[in-house]
Design a protein that fits this description.
Length: 387
């Protein structure tokens, strides 16, 4: 009898862990088909089907009939609460949107590729249409949105305005709000924030890196970042905290988009790396260079190691002064992997104060949708505050 009871308890515990895993994946990544859930959780499709049926009966998830690759499938999403919010990221690559509510986190997330940063009015038309489609799949409407956080690839002040206007030509919160009033008859509560702050917020709101003090570096087409002090994102008085790409490394260097000369971005940003590789490899994209580095190409790998060393030297004074629990590096450059992190950590340890200190350097978010998810968490927190 004892053995049977123990076995029953073990099976119940296993079932609870599996259910928890499914809910966690849905909260982090939004809606998935049952097949995608099985792949993401490493559970069998039969187990997923049983769990989805159980959660559906408890009104914890909702299922919608969809077509994927010409085949019928069931899309599973967390049951949305009343406080609907959206996190939106707009950058040179496209539009990322995550929707959800204050109770469940991410319900749905999508990415819409764009050919470069376009005019704001054109971008808004596509964005609203894209967002409307997502909400309709959830059985919701644009007018139900309570809060929206828009993440942009530039420093923004406390009012959501660009600190350096020529880095975000045409952007204004007023124009964004007007577009939603035109589409829905009302404007949701709107906040503009930098993309790096959203990534850091994602890390501190349930991410794997939730230390008290963290220096976050986003190494991508440009270099940006954020500071988490005492468990909270530090914004400063003017919104430029964490703009590591605009720390000067060469007073006589190329002119940066910010108007100054020799910023870190002009040395290790995507345009600079493409220029360095062009004589020997032709016109490569940053993605091409990173893929070659991961494949072991000597020139590309050495270049990315030098990039890591340059970034480490540039942020070393910040690390030495603040003494964070860990340094988190995310973005596409982090996908180069161990050689990139080893070069960064070696240079930082060698140059930082106190001498002999070995800093914790760990990988951070790389997914294109991570910015939108971080923006959503900011939005849902705002909903909980004002509701």
């Amino acid at each position: 009898m004892t053995i049977e009871t123990t076995q029953l308890g073990s099976l119940t515990s296993l079932r609870q862990r599996n259910v928890s895993t499914v809910l966690k994946v849905l909260r982090q990544h939004g809606g998935m088909t049952q097949v995608e859930l099985a792949e993401a959780t490493l559970l069998s499709t039969a187990t997923i089907s049983s769990i989805v049926r159980e959660l559906s009966e408890k009104n914890e998830v909702e299922t919608t009939s969809v077509s994927r690759n010409g085949r019928h499938a069931w899309l599973v999403t967390l049951a949305a609460g009343s406080s609907l919010a959206a996190g939106i990221s707009i950058d040179d690559h496209g539009i990322s949107i995550a929707t959800g509510d204050a109770n469940h986190g991410v319900v749905s997330s999508r990415f819409l590729p764009l050919a470069g940063l376009q005019q704001l009015d054109t971008t808004l038309i596509r964005l609203i249409g894209f967002l409307r489609e997502m909400l309709e799949e959830m059985g919701r409407e644009l007018g139900e949105l309570k809060a929206i956080v828009v993440a942009l690839p530039a420093p923004l002040d406390g009012q959501g305005n660009a600190v350096i206007p020529n880095m975000l030509p045409g952007w204004s919160e007023g124009m964004f709000s007007e577009a939603f009033v035109s589409a829905t008859g009302k404007a949701p509560s709107l906040i503009g924030v930098s993309d790096a702050s959203c990534r850091a917020y994602l890390e501190t709101s349930g991410g794997v890196h939730s230390r008290v003090d963290t220096l976050y570096i986003h190494a991508d087409d440009v270099i940006s970042g954020s500071l988490v002090l005492n468990g909270k994102i530090y914004h400063g008085s003017n919104g430029v905290i964490g703009q590591f790409g605009h720390l000067q490394v060469d007073p006589n260097g190329a002119v940066c988009a910010c108007g100054r000369r020799g910023c870190l971005n002009t040395v290790v940003g995507a345009p600079a790396l493409r220029t360095l590789m062009m004589p020997s490899r032709g016109d490569l994209t940053l993605r091409d260079i990173l893929n070659d580095a991961r494949d072991g190409d000597t020139a590309s790998l050495r270049l990315m190691e030098e990039v890591a060393e340059t970034i480490a030297r540039t942020v070393e004074p910040v690390v030495s002064m603040l003494g964070p629990d860990e340094v988190v590096i995310g973005g596409s450059m982090a996908k180069v992997g161990k050689p990139f992190f080893d070069a960064f950590a070696y240079t930082l340890d060698r140059q930082s104060f106190p001498a002999g200190k070995s800093w914790s350097v760990v990988p951070g978010p790389e997914d294109a949708l991570d910015v939108a998810r971080g923006a959503l968490f900011i939005a849902t927190d705002k909903v909980m505050i004002v509701s």
